[in-house]
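Chains adopt folds. We examine one example:
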Amino acid sequence: MGSRNRKTKLSMENDKDSVERKRQCRIDYTSLLPNEIMIKIFSLLPHEDLFRNIRCVNKRWYNLTKAPTLWRIISADRKVPSSILRKWIRHSPLLKEISFFNRDDMDVLIEYISKYSSHLQSIIIENCWGNSKNNYIKGRRACGMLKKCPKLCILNFTQTCINSTKFFRILATRAGEDVEPKKYTYIGPITQKQMEALLDSIHRDNKHDLVVSSSSQHFGHIVDAGSPRVTPSVSDFIWNNLNGRYPNE
């Protein structure tokens, strides 16, 4: 009789332990963490995980993934759909740095940046097309971005084409401003008129920094504003060496 009572007691204790374990498994321990800690944890995750997975867990996580501090730096290649990337840009009022690689939707993305990213300080565009049918990025969109993003001080276009003379003129003018140091790099085809516009801005204002050096046949020449100063005589020498290598616009 005593043995049976002991077995019954042990069984009841095991049942209690089982219930307690199940109860603990159901506890959401992340709910005990403050929002600041959760946002810090989320900042260690890729943006695609935040957008596709984390925000779907519950309402609190959904709201936390929209914290502007999580979206100050964005990097996206062709794997991120254009529709999703546009949402990231639209909901990132504190966006400071953005990088694009191997994409074919830059016309629409640059337009979104112009509308929603006035605090942008750095943009890198590498091996990107304006759209799926045209490898040139529309000059009107690129010029609009330069005007709408006054804090932009780092611009790097690599293996990318801009079909605008005005863009290079604005680029040279901004490089000569004394607001803060700027680093502007363009690696891609450049026409005679575009080079003339760039050098003409330097002739008018000797504050500009410019380096022009040959690259491969595929990528044209490098125009880099952010290196040692170039005097008008040096810019003449550059143009004389480049003149005749490019088709007219």
User: Anything to note?
Assistant: The chain has one domain: 12-242.
